[in-house]
Amino acid sequence: KVPSQLVPWDFYINLQLQERLNEECDNLCSCYQYQDGCIVWHQYINCFTLQDLLQHSEFITHEITVLVIYNLLTVVEKLHKAEIVHGDLSPRSLILRNRIHDPYDFNKNNQALKIVDFSYSVDLRAQLDVFTLSGFRTVQILEGQKILANCSSPYQVDLFGIADLAHLLLFKEHLQVFWDGSLWKLSQSVSELKDGELWNKFFVRILNASDESTVSVLRELAAEMNEVFDTTFQSHLNKALWKVGTLISPGALLFQQDRQSALSQIPA
């Protein structure tokens, strides 16, 4: 990432997470500062994003959707525990990690996603009075949704971001909700989805967190998702991930890049 700002915000957030969570958040992240900007260098085996996966929706099974959302819940719980709001949980800012691009990396269901863009993030420990909700990209994407008017905490923005990503994975479109008189609910029906009751509980809970601690809500939702990972589920998940692995392996990525380059050189 090559931002024009002199302050390496992504790198700052990574350092704060490492310090506040007392863990190694990103040992493959480096920053190089120059007079007119800086370079934040993320070194990964694979640079396939969730946005890339969404463009191949035929590979997105129920099991992969559960895996992605489970990881989001655990990652964002850590951010909020460290008093960081991400503000832009979009598919392009989420790198697919080992559990997804290596079908043989079993029993690491908490290592499927990595956040690499903190451009819209806010450090609430240092910036409590210097931001507005409208500055978060998630709020801009969901502009017009009445649920935003009830957003009482910046942390809720990330809950809506997770809900929006789940909606994209399940329905291939952004979140649409309505107020039924007592709760915020999806405009779409989840009854025909595989494990529809799981998703119904998920959306009702995450959309109606109100003034509750988001750390507690995220932990509760992650625990419920984790209960799905039984032997049968893992078997289906591993098969689905093997197919995704053939799509996003280094060789497949090179083939796609070469093909796109060749197509761009064909005269119109």
From TrEMBL:
<dbReference type="GO" id="GO:0005524">
    <property type="term" value="F:ATP binding"/>
</dbReference>
<dbReference type="GO" id="GO:0004672">
    <property type="term" value="F:protein kinase activity"/>
</dbReference>
<protein>
    <submittedName>
        <fullName>Mitotic checkpoint serine/threonine-protein kinase BUB1 beta-like protein</fullName>
    </submittedName>
</protein>
<keyword id="KW-0995">Kinetochore</keyword>
<dbReference type="InterPro" id="IPR000719">
    <property type="entry name" value="Prot_kinase_dom"/>
</dbReference>
<keyword id="KW-0808">Transferase</keyword>
<keyword id="KW-0158">Chromosome</keyword>
<feature type="domain" description="Protein kinase">
    <location>
        <begin position="1"/>
        <end position="268"/>
    </location>
</feature>
<dbReference type="InterPro" id="IPR015661">
    <property type="entry name" value="Bub1/Mad3"/>
</dbReference>
<dbReference type="InterPro" id="IPR011009">
    <property type="entry name" value="Kinase-like_dom_sf"/>
</dbReference>
<keyword id="KW-0418">Kinase</keyword>
<dbReference type="GO" id="GO:0000776">
    <property type="term" value="C:kinetochore"/>
</dbReference>
<keyword id="KW-0137">Centromere</keyword>
<dbReference type="GO" id="GO:0007094">
    <property type="term" value="P:mitotic spindle assembly checkpoint signaling"/>
</dbReference>
<dbReference type="Pfam" id="PF00069">
    <property type="entry name" value="Pkinase"/>
</dbReference>
